[in-house]
Amino acid sequence: MLAVELSIRLFDSYSLKDKRSVVKSIIAKMHQRYNISIAEVADQDMLNQAVIGIAIVSSSMVLCQQVLDKVVEEIESNYEVEIFQIKDSL
Q: What are the structural domains of the chain?
């Protein structure tokens, strides 16, 4: 099992509505594509930042890390965001 918190900075977010739209899109697509548990866990009222919690369960820690790496890469390449911190939650 791997549990992490991604701290992200959102660009072109001028309202909480803009932020929620981007964060909800990230959460829905990553959950659907990788079957991970994912949710916004902090900084809900901050305009240009979000903290997203991700949990991945597998019998192989290597597989968990590979899935996390793919999720991080996909978020950074498909959205106008910067992941500035990845923190272990356990």
A: 2-88 (3.30.70.1120)
